[in-house]
């Protein structure tokens, strides 16, 4: 189906996303986020921009269910695993993290900070951070969108705007995750490293902050169950109420299987002999990553959201 945008602006990519609902929404964004400064071209990740369909917001509100949100979390596992697999091929100790390694338009900081900041500034211009799904690592530096502001359906309580734990995510990613993830040595392609880190951080941030949607859906399903714990500001009880151990066990098994599948190194010779499977990263690493901080941080976001839900 050709849209008016496709006819007049062929360079724009027309992509589709689901937003809790099986019915896709058509959006467009500039797809030439060329990070030539680091010799890499990075395509924008999918996020809603001005919708071309009418009355779509009703569809979103009807599809705002815990099951649909969980399905989105499952889809996001792929992005997280693939971005970590890409990053794992480069060495950990990189000049991309050295604040004094490069002169970057007067920017004071590391190449990876520069890459994330510039990426967010560019994406902000097409409305990425107007979406409740997206959270910037440098929100104080974002320019105003140049596209018409889309009135997204308000599925979250306004308290969601005050929750952004990206600083915590950044610190854990560089201090805890990377040293365990990266096994490659002497592959310090700092431009590629900065691009891969950007994608990893953005995928993890989106998944963890999805805790807001999960918390809202759980609150709407059983408000009275949460209200007394919220009024008592009982974080421990809120965490108990929102924790679902059977779901967590399934998440761990699924991400480990996906890591085995996506990260498998297949070696076959001319005689069709297939060597024993090896993996780009240990599949159990991904399961441990989810258990030790992706899911705990997602629950932390849920607790923070619920504590503010009755404001
Ligand atoms: C996201 C949810 O809330 C909690 C966090 C989970 C996660 O981060 O994967 C899974 C189950 C719950 O303990 C959910 O119930 O689906």
UniProtKB/TrEMBL annotation:
Pfam families xrefs: CM_2
Enzyme class per UniProt: isomerase
Reaction equation(s) it catalyzes: chorismate = prephenate
One GO cellular component term noted in the UniProt record for this chain: cytoplasm
Keywords (A to Z) from UniProt: Amino-acid biosynthesis, Aromatic amino acid biosynthesis, Isomerase
GO biological process: chorismate metabolic process; defense response to bacterium; L-tryptophan biosynthetic process; prephenate(2-) biosynthetic process
Domain Chorismate mutase stretches: 192-302
Annotated GO MF terms: chorismate mutase activity; protein homodimerization activity
InterPro entries, sorted: Chorismate_II_sf, Chorismate_mutase_AroQ_euk, CM_AroQ_sf_eucaryotic, CM_II_prokaryot
EC number from the UniProt entry: 5.4.99.5
Keyword hit for Amino-acid biosynthesis: yes
Known pathway: Metabolic intermediate biosynthesis; prephenate biosynthesis; prephenate from chorismate: step 1/1
Keyword Amino-acid biosynthesis: yes
NCBIfam families to which the protein is assigned, alphabetical: CM_pl-yst
Protein known as: Chorismate mutase
């Amino acid at each position: 189906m050709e849209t008016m945008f496709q006819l007049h602006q062929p360079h724009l990519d027309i992509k589709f996303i689901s937003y809790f609902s099986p019915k896709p929404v058509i959006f467009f964004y500039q797809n030439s986020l060329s990070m030539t400064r680091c010799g890499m071209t990075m395509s924008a990740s999918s996020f809603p921009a001005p919708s071309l369909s009418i009355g779509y917001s009703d569809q979103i509100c009807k599809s705002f269910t815990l099951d649909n949100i969980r399905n989105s979390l499952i889809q996001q596992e792929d992005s997280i695993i693939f971005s970590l697999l890409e990053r794992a091929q480069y060495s950990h100790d990189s000049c991309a993290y050295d604040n004094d390694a490069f002169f970057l338009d007067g920017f004071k900081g590391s190449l990876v900070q520069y890459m994330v900041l510039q990426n967010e500034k560019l994406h902000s211009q097409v409305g990425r951070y107007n979406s409740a799904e997206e959270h910037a690592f440098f929100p104080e530096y974002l320019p105003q969108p140049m596209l018409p502001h889309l009135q997204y359906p308000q599925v979250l309580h306004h308290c969601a705007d005050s929750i952004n734990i990206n600083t915590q995510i950044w610190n854990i990613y560089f201090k805890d995750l990377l040293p365990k993830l990266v096994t490659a040595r002497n592959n310090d392609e700092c431009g590629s490293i900065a691009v891969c880190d950007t994608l990893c951080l953005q995928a993890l941030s989106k998944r963890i902050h999805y805790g807001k949607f999960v918390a809202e859906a759980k609150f709407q399903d059983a408000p009275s169950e949460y209200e007394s714990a919220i009024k008592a500001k009982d974080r421990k009880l809120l965490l108990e109420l929102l924790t679902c151990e059977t779901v967590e066990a399934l998440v761990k098994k699924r991400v480990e299987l996906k890591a085995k599948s996506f990260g498998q190194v297949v070696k076959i010779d001319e005689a069709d002999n297939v060597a024993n499977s090896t993996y780009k990263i240990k599949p159990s690493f991904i399961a441990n990553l989810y258990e030790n901080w992706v899911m705990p941080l997602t629950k932390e976001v849920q607790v923070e959201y619920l504590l503010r839900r009755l404001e």
